[in-house]
Automatic annotation (TrEMBL):
Entry superkingdom: Bacteria
Region (Disordered), start-end ranges: 292-320
Protein name per the record: DNA-entry nuclease
Organism: Butyrivibrio proteoclasticus
Regions of compositional bias (Basic and acidic residues) in chain numbering: 292-309
Length: 320
């Protein structure tokens, strides 16, 4: 009788354990993947609209009270959703600090000269889910993921800039949510879903729901662990003879400590760096300079007044 009871208890324990492990596996599979089925395969554009570009905020979620909330890391140490009501009161008032101490999942850094458009040409950035210019977060591990240079600059940054410019110029608020999308137990996300909605004008100026692809043209990436290598067709992007692969720990997006001739990438005598696309000018040490594609940079020796007289506008990040 005692043996029978013990056997029954063991079976119950095994059943409970199996259910627990099964549920944990399901949670790991499903976290941050609610948009996955709606995302088309990457086809050359850094981002794509989801749900007809309509964000999914409910009436209860929408507020004019600024806040920021960063989800807990999951059981694999991966970031989950970050949500905020962006207002001027959340925007940074101090210089950006180093974030190099944070090692997000899937961080396997390499350089690809001639393929990745940055100096130095690191594949990965420590990407803020909610950009520093919006909430001033530095080394917050709940807000930093491993993302390609392409996703960070071509995918996410234009949307962050749109929100930052709107909030800075109007004083209004924007609901903002960024959700990294992982397939299964992969350590590197497929991309991020970004939703935004301007509150006071009920979405008239800001309203979007997009997915930014965590890819890098010319590079093959293993999303299970973040390992990467030059793609067979990378020659279409750059001369493969210039390819060098070196492990590293940069690509952190932190403040550049020097400017002008102290930075080998900036000509001596440079007073400002102008973004040819946006017409904004920046101090050479501004983070936005590192975010630009090299082909969009114009190194200027002109004065602030001269640039403004030409129709250029000062960056709201570094306030030159």
């Amino acid at each position: 009788m005692l043996k029978s009871k013990a056997s029954f208890a063991n079976r119950i324990f095994a059943l409970v354990l199996a259910l627990t492990l099964g549920m944990a596996s399901f949670l790991l599979w499903s976290v941050g993947t609610h948009a996955e089925d709606d995302v088309p395969a990457y086809s050359g554009s850094p981002s794509v609209a989801l749900n007809n570009n309509v964000p999914g905020f409910t009436d209860k979620e929408i507020t004019t009270s600024s806040f920021e909330k960063y989800g807990e890391l999951d059981q694999l140490g991966r970031c989950t959703a970050a949500t905020a009501c962006i207002g001027q009161e959340l925007m940074p008032t101090e210089e950006r600090q180093s974030i190099v101490a944070v090692k997000p999942t899937g961080w396997k850094q390499n350089k690809y000269p001639g393929v990745v458009d940055s100096k130095p040409p690191y594949l990965f950035n420590r990407c803020h889910l909610i950009g520093f210019q919006l909430t001033g977060e530095n080394a917050n591990e709940k807000n930093l993921i491993t993302g390609t240079r392409y996703m960070n600059v071509e995918g996410m940054l234009p949307y962050e800039n749109e929100v930052a410019d709107y909030v800075s110029s109007t004083g209004n608020h924007v609901m903002y949510r960024v959700t990294p999308i992982f397939t299964g137990n992969n350590l590197l996300c497929d991309g991020v879903q970004i939703e935004a909605y301007s509150v006071e004008d009920k979405g008239k100026e800001i309203s979007f729901n997009v997915f930014c692809y965590n890819v890098q043209p010319g590079i093959e990436i293993n999303y299970a662990d973040g390992s990467n290598e030059l793609a067979p067709d990378a020659g279409k992007i750059a001369d493969s003879n210039s390819f060098i692969i070196t492990g590293g720990d940069s690509g952190n997006g932190s403040v550049r400590s020097s400017a002008g001739s102290d930075d080998p990438g900036i000509p001596a005598g440079t007073t400002y760096v102008v973004n040819k696309n946006s017409g904004k000018f920046h101090y050479p040490s501004c983070d936005s300079v590192n975010d630009m594609k090299e082909k969009n940079k114009e190194y200027s020796t002109k004065t602030r007044d001269e640039l403004i007289s030409e129709g250029k506008t000062p960056c709201k990040r570094c306030n030159p």
